[in-house]
Write a structure and sequence with these properties.
Blueprint (H helix, E strand, L loop, with lengths): L3 H16 L3 E10 L2 E9 L6 H18 L6 E6 L10 H29 L3 H10 L1
Parallel strand pairs: 2-3
Antiparallel strand pairs: 1-2
Length: 132
């Protein structure tokens, strides 16, 4: 569950990320040892590179400095959510469902050719048993 800092940063950073061509996926406000860290996770249809992270970081940092509503000093981090992107919004679930439907359809139509590729994975074995 998002706390007050995460909710406020999300509201502030979403339009700034969109202006940079990125989608704000998640915000995490956490204490790591003695230091506080504000992590922004962004995504883009073109992928997330160093340049995009830097431009989002500069835009959000300027806005946060201007408003100055976060009390303790903190480190700002901007990165991709990675391969294990959390499914937090309805659009995330829909996108994952479409990709999963495509995979199942592909396996049903080509399961004999897919078997050598998938037989050693737990997910592959489960899917192939499920579609038989």
């Amino acid at each position: 569950m998002a706390n007050a800092v995460e909710r406020r940063v999300m509201a502030l950073a979403e339009p700034l990320c969109a202006a940079q061509g990125a989608e704000l996926v998640a915000v995490e406000w956490q204490k790591q040892g003695r230091d506080w860290t504000l992590c922004l996770y962004i995504d883009s249809p073109d992928g997330v590179g160093h340049e995009l992270c830097a431009s989002v970081s500069h835009a959000v940092s300027e806005a946060l400095d201007a408003l100055d509503f976060i009390e303790p000093s903190y480190n700002l981090e901007v990165s991709s959510p990675g391969l294990e992107r959390p499914l937090l919004k309805a659009a995330d679930f829909q996108q994952k469902l479409v990709k999963s439907s495509f995979l199942v359809n592909w396996l049903v139509t080509r399961r004999m050719r897919a078997w050598p590729l998938l037989k050693k994975t737990v997910v592959g074995i489960w899917l192939l048993r499920w579609i038989k």
